[in-house]
Design goal:
The chain has about 100 residues and is α+β, with helices and mostly antiparallel strands. The protein has one domain: Alpha-Beta Plaits (2-Layer Sandwich). It is about 40% helix and about 15% strand. The protein contains 4 helices and 2 strands; from the N terminus they run H-E-E-H-H-H. Strands 1-2 form a two-stranded antiparallel ribbon. It holds the Pfam family Y1_Tnp. It comes from Actinokineospora alba. One of its GO terms (molecular function) is transposase activity. This is Putative transposase.
């Protein structure tokens, strides 16, 4: 993820997730097309995960897709960056 962000001249600030999705906090300039960045992040990570964990294929064999086609993106607005980092860090902790 960090290498893809670097290729797009963006910065991966935080990364975490749960069993069925991930959260990324990315700092990027307005010249970057978000859809292209997300598409590249999904494509590259899917290839790397499939190479490293070939046994995962039995979990997604029907659709042949590791990631869903959709995504959610939001801007941080006035939220302090440390609040967003804390939210992402806590995503895989039990409630």
């Amino acid at each position: 993820m960090r290498a893809v962000c670097s290729d797009f001249e963006t910065q991966l600030v935080e990364f975490n997730g749960e069993t069925n999705h991930v959260h990324l906090l990315v700092n990027f300039p307005p010249k970057i097309a978000l859809s292209k960045l997300v598409n590249s992040l999904k494509g590259v990570s899917s290839r790397r995960i499939r190479q490293e964990f070939p046994d995962l294929a039995r979990h997604y064999w029907r659709t042949n897709q590791l990631w869903a086609g959709s995504y959610f993106a939001g801007s941080r607005g006035e939220a302090p960056i440390n609040v967003l980092r804390q939210y992402i860090e806590q995503q895989n902790r039990p409630a």
